[in-house]
Amino acid sequence: MTRTRLRSPLLALCALLMTMVAMTPAHASGGDILSSLGIAASAKPRFLQVDEAFQLESEQRGDQLLLTLHIADDYYLYRHSLRFKGNNLTFRDPDLPAGTEHQDDFFGKTRVYYQQVTIAVPLREVGEHASLRLSYQGCTDGLCYPPTDKLIDVTPLAAVPTATDATPANAATVSQQDQLAAALGSQGFWLSIVAFFALGLGLAFTPCVFPMYPILTGIIAGAGHRLSTGRAFLLSLVYVQGMAVTYTLLGLVVASAGLKFQAALQHPYVLIGLSLMFVLLALSMFGLYTLQLPSSLQTRLSGLSNRQQGGSVAGVAIMGMISGLVCSPCTTAPLSGALIYVAQSGDLWLGGAALYALSLGMGLPLLLLGTSGGKLLPKAGAWMDVIKQLFGFALLAVPILLLSRLWSDQVTTLAWLGWGLLLCGYLYHHNQHQPHSVAKSLRGFVLLLAMISAVVVGKDLLQPPAIGTVTAGSNQSAPQFVRIKTLADLKVQLAAARGKPVLLDLYADWCVACKEFEHKTFSDPVVRERFGQMVLLQADVTANDDADVELLNSLNVLGLPTLILFDREGKELTGQRVTGFMGPVPFAKHLETVSDAN
After folding, report:
1. Which backbone phi and psi does 211 adopt, to 5 degrees?
2. Per-residue pLDDT tens for 206-218?
3. Of 245, 216, 242, residue with least CA distance to 371
4. Fewer Cβ within 10 Å of end Cβ, the chain: N or C?
């Protein structure tokens, strides 16, 4: 009896379900049936599968196994959950990136990874059919996944001397920016800040910082005889702070939003607008604002000139911010290391502090120059006007530095020659009004000789050389790059080049260091010899159109110049990217290391 009572309700429920299914139209979906039972059908899972949330990529590079975990947005991976276990292999404990601090409901204060984390596992001995077991655990808001195990097959090592077990041998296979990114997350906050400040000091005399020197000296000169040492220090400090803050914020935006924002700042309209502004500031040093200008615009420009000449703190800060825009396109290994760290860890505080320290290091010589300007400049007299006009010429040099990113080498050289002729002509005119003396005659002779030389050089530039000379020179100094435009073009060229290593050069006309690569590094005989063993590709992303943005984003490019190396199978060599300018000797050694690895 008891069994019958238990079974009867169950049979009744089954009969009810069969009746409802029979009454449901044939085209009805499962969701309709569930709805008829009062059960809500979810159209889309709220959470990703564990393999979608945490995607693992592995690549073996000699005695190093590189593991990269791509982490979906709004998901994170626990640092302490990473476990490594070898099967028929031995390895040294890998150095884990520091990650980001996270307050967890279950584990308390811990560290996690966002977006992406790359781990290099140094291998000691690898036998046949060896593998590495990787364990990890991650979470998202509202869900924690159980620990996940992944088995990675490892190829037996070739005959490698035991000396390669040392850290320097492994470090040679990782690019400088990747080493800096790893160091930024592992060596502690203050040590990282001091290191990046020192790196910035080394970058203080690079081409992208050059425009700042005439800008700051023009500001100091504009203060005239009213400038004291303390006032000069204050103006210089404000200028450097404005540059540093802008440079830091732009770096964080580029790391978060991608290269498209940085490239937009180098649009011809932006560069031309900045150039016009510096021309107007230079004219204010000459006192020429009254020439054919509307009264309203004349009033505004005069006010701007007076504020600049009086050393307004707000005006100097604005000039410093503009200078931060000027130096923003320069990509160097320290800058790339900080950007990579920010992009991978999501730690804006440490990344931003490193960028700020880097920019302060770049600004230290500017601070010293501006502070000493008050002592170096004449305090009163006619010489003060001459000095101000000379700094006006210095300000006129800034537009040439900016527009050289858009001009050809020939046009840029002619512009510099024209600037030099104007400067020599002004000095010669001023020299003619000096009392007669031997020094006056000598100065006049030197200035005339300089002007004649500039005219001769300009004449040679305007005359095209012999055809045979151009062809021979170009064949000797310019490597033959295959131009690509889209991501599809890259895939086609990589497939066609299978069996040979490939170098992809990402280039833009506004990238100063890209042109340095072409003129100084790519033309080196040793580098050209290495190029002869490779397929050379180049993507010109000056236009910054949709195809360029897609290509840069798919390759995770944070700045230019960036050179990417691919192996004989068309796969990128992890840790071998070159960002920022590299001279011919270290670049040739880098290519040799990659060639040996291939």
Report:
1. -60, -20
2. 666 767 777 777 7
3. 216
4. N
